[in-house]
Amino acid sequence: MIFDLIKKRRSVFPVQYNDRSIAKGDIEKILEAANWAPNHKKTEPWRFKVLTGDAKVKLGDFLSKKYEETETKPKQIKIKKLQENPKKAAAIIAICMQRDPNESLPEWEELAATAMAVQNMWLCCTELGIGSYWSSPGLIKHMDAFFEMNEGEKCLGFFYMGYSDETPMEAARRPIEEKVVWMD
Description:
A four-stranded antiparallel beta sheet has the order 1-2-4-3. It has helices at about 1-10, 25-35, 55-70, 75-90, 105-130; strands at about 45-50, 90-100, 130-135, 155-160. The radius of gyration is 18 Å and the shape is globular.
């Protein structure tokens, strides 16, 4: 049931991943799930760049070097994390958004549609038993120096994926009644 799948979804971080690879067919299924997200005026603004193998290492190198270049007091622990997290993932999907060149709708609607595409990916990963995590480091503003991007396209973050031997933690939410106002 979809409600159970929604409640089961968790962030699973790169440090929790094992060495098991993800089949290309499963990555394609995850991307196809993203493609069915709702979007206004059929702009389908989501764009994805899939990184596996050596591309993950290159991403880690780029992020750590860019961090060292842009920070006045770079921390060695963060440099190492930026290098290592991409290597730990079985695959990384760069989450990008292509702005409608006609700006026929507000940008927030295209951002929301892209976020819904990511939620579809996350739910699909949950169903497939693949751990995943959306990371949006400040360094994403520099990704046009790493990826070839179209005019109006921007990187919103990275969707890390990998299998984990750990059992996901239980989650809790405050009651919905605290967040809803009913009006008759």
